[in-house]
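Obj.: predict assembly geometry.
Materials: sequence records (below).
Method: joint structure prediction, all chains together.
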Amino acid sequence: MPVEPPAPEFEPSTPVQYLPGVGAARAERLRRLGLRRAQDVLFFFPREHQFPPPPTRVDDLREGCPATFIGKITDAELVSRTPGKSLFAAIVENDSGAVRIVFFNQPFRAEQLIFDRIVRLSGSPKLAGLRWEFTHPKYELIEADEADAESPENKGEILPVYPLTECVKEYELRRLTRRVASVLAGGVKEVMPPSIRADASVRLREAGIELVGDLPGISTTLRDIHGPPSAEALTAARTRLIFQELFVMQLALAMRRTSLTGRLQAPAMPCTAKIRQRILRRFPFELTADQNRVIDEITREMGRQFPMNRLLQGDVGSGKTVVAIFAMMLAVASGHQATLMAPTEVLARQHYQTLSKILADSRVRIGLLCGSLTAAQRRETLEQIASGELDLIIGTQALVYDIDFHSLGLCVIDEQHKFGVRQRVRLREGGVDPHYLVMSATPIPRSVAMTQFGDVDLSTLREKPAGRGEVHTYLAVDSWRDRWWDFVRQRIAEGRQAYVVAPRVGNESVPRDPSTESPDDLDELTLLDEVEDVTSVSRTFENLRDNVLKEHRVELLHGRMKPEAKQDVMQRFADGEIDVLVSTTVIEVGVDVANATVMTILGGNRFGLAQLHQLRGRISRGVHAGYLCVFTDGEGSPEDSERLKVFEQTSDGFELAEADFRLRGPGDMLGRKQSGLAPLRIADLNRDIEILQVARTMAQELIDEDPGMQAEELAGLRDQVLRRYGDRLDLGDGA
Ligand code: ADP
Ligand code: MG
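Observations (raw structure tokens):
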């Protein structure tokens, strides 16, 4: 390539059309990639890099050794003797000689590999007579320009690979980005002070990132990402860009968190040793070390006059509710009200019963607010809440958001596995915010917790209370059916109870995300979702009742039943008057019967991982081992089988959540409204989790020390934070 003189003929703001070698037609195609100005090109980062071997000359080809060969097609011929049998052969030639390529029974090759085109081949050649021959090589048609022996593609250099649209060619873009980087990279202003880069480098290495020396300055970084001189330089450049992107995001989240807690007021409810003792005495068991630790985290925050905003995550049965009850009792002991919102009425009633039992013979007054109250009952309850006669209010989310509280100190939201966009409770004129505690049984993958939930504090229960039954999970094939039902009947004969979960109907294997709707619609939504399933569950029920389970007491439960009917069935199941409950996923959120240890899931391929895990949680509640058998519809996709295999092999909710995230991405886990974060250009939350962790820690430390990022040397970084996240996260200029 001829050496060109330095060309100061363009600047960051130059439209791409006027960049060397672009012109109007290419500019139009570049615009489709979002590249309008030279600076866009400079910051258009490669998706990955390739390390292609340089092409081989004919004399250097070796029998059976993989090689790349570039040349022009100088002869091509398709021979077809009998129908369905053909041979395509072509000669590919360059200045070092010629090779032959052959394809059997692939006549369409003749349409691609035509006379005079230039092609890059790769494969293992063998000597056929005097000529090297590649059978079924991989190939790519290229332009003359790219075939040039001096081009980066042919010198064994590391090649950036850009995310492209159809109409832009990789090699064209490579030339352009290199050129732009060589002219403009030197002039880009550094926003990350050397001290931050040096500190980050040390921590990244401690976190296991392979990094030689410090994170490079921005000019070197931009030059190296588009044209890496070595693998080390490439790693350093990539790491710097990934770190910077995540650091800027984490700074924004840390700023928001700090400014939120600084602005809002909540009642301080310190937990003294005496109060703690009094509350603990109410539980019929010792708390686990994990529960005690999490209670410490929570009470420490409730003792401050800023609202807590905390997510408590832990598997089904890990004892979250007990922790929440502790927090609610602390609120009441401090003279405030507390509320517990459940996603369904069934759950609300269950929480109400649990609390009533624990607080029997205490002075704490508990109220239940749910859809099946009469108008008069409801009016009375609301009055008691407003006047402060009730201390603890349990209810469904749809109702509780509308209440006027007398003095709400703590709001606990039991979301089971559903994360939603959360409304805040109504505040009285001049009232202060309550503390918030959200419980979730589907652990959030670490990376999601650090990004979408970046301004929420996290408490995690990993240890389960002792004596939890183990669940054996089997992924069944159809031929097991008879044997499995035998097994179910035996367990029932031993006195155990069983669940049968009917398949969902339709292709939607993932539960609809209610967070995209307003919480007021939630109850109705749950019902709508089940319309179709009702036919399916009824059919399953009749079939089992009349055939394999005809000796036993079988009952049906689904979300379309009247609340009293539902309640009645659940109560009789809990009392052991029903052997088998055939149900839709309504049991996923709710029923807590320790004697039920056998579960059959039909059409398991139609359920999401989180949901399957929730279902399994229903049979790990007692001292007896649980047995779960999952049947599929047969027509499951490869992703379905992958998911089910993970489910069979893993019983840890945290591992499952990470797997779910890998298989499905974060999209399905979160409400769309909630992921209000800018799309990432180069970082990948799955892959770059270690870098994310370092960025988060450093961002929080920096903001703790300098909440407004006012230090002179942080001006550039602060600009970037506000430009990228100011509007989205409502940081405001003063932050
Ligand atoms: P989660 O809300 O996480 O599903 P719960 O708080 O409902 O879990 O606890 C599940 C079951 O375990 C309940 O029956 C509860 O009484 C019991 N439990 C909770 N903590 C303990 C403990 N420390 N020791 C023994 N049993 C416990
Ligand atoms: Mg619970």
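Conclusions so far: The longest helix spans residues 231-263.
To do: check interface contacts against the pulldown list.
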